[in-house]
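Just curious. Protein, please.
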Amino acid sequence: MLGRRSVVLLVLSLLPLFDVVAESESSPEEEYRIEFSANARFPMDRRYCVGSRSPENCTLGGMKRNQIVLTFDDGPNAQTQRVLTVLGKWNVPATFFVHIGYHNYTRGTQNILNQIHRAGHKIANHGRSHSPLNGSTSSNTLVSYLLETHEIIAPYQRRRDIPLYRNPGGYWNPSRASLLNSTPVLRDYVGPIFWNVGGSIVGGSQGYSDAADWQCQTRGISANACAQGYYNKIIRNYRNNEGSLVLMHDIHPVSAPTLDRLLQRLSQDSVNWDFIFVQDIPAVKHYFKEI
């Protein structure tokens, strides 16, 4: 977990900006083995066995097939509040991978982070901006982007939270994992967090077998059709005995209504869907440890 001393030193200069209330938890802190994975598709890159090694207990990331993880990238902005309203309406949790640096950290941004935190959701690191995306980015830039966001979001980490990182664009390689695992503070993160729902639009006008809210936005696809694409992929994962780690964004106007229609559709199923945080995925909690 993040060392208390290192966090205090990092955020000292930012403390006047925050009004996050410290939390007290009496239960002992769970021990996690924390480090970056070398695999770009972590934690959906391999099957983990939870309990017995029977096929039904060996699933991608160790997730049960009725489990759904909602994640939102690239915020916060005004659309984040609309997403929060929908999540509150359906009483489901989510993890927000935020893009924040000193250049765009304002009182308004702080207020939205406070809303996410107080609603019980998790705040994770997506770097300072939608970069670095490729191998030409220097090591110093990669580290500085993560550290800059870390300093801002560290006060929002609860005692038992696992620090999480998702690389913009999904770009990753083993050298990045090695670099970040050797960097103080950042080596306490788990990542990169990939997904298996919402990567891109699959299908056509007759229906979508997967969807991506950012593509729905740029192509003018309705929230209803976009939500159906997300739903179809979740159902296909369920039938394949896989849980669903869903990628969405909280910066597009279509995202909140798409989320609302998706959750409405899921609520009508006979399946007892279980919404969990990224940090509750067994592969994240027990990274590369046999369960």
About this structure: The radius of gyration is 18 Å.
